[in-house]
Model the fold of this input.
Amino acid sequence: MNLLALVGCHKDISPRELFVGNKIAFFPTNWEQHLRAEISEMEALSEEARTALRLERRSGKPLIARYIARKLTSSNPSFVPKSLKEIINKAISVSWEEACVIDSRKV
Done:
């Protein structure tokens, strides 16, 4: 089943670029690979996070992402990668249509 169709997106979308829609956003690869091009110190920050959080090599992806996000946004000046700004701005501007968890027609 096409995951985009599942969320009501029937457009022909190139998987080679970031997609930000009213209901979904997705990276063409994954968060880490996509943002490596926008965050020059991604590897160093990942290693710093693993050390600070005492994480093993193949664990802690959400913790590392949160660590990097906090580190970048708390720097002076703060830094938010272009891709994430695009997703955040879209999320702020989208109006609520219905719940995705329950059948909102029954509420």
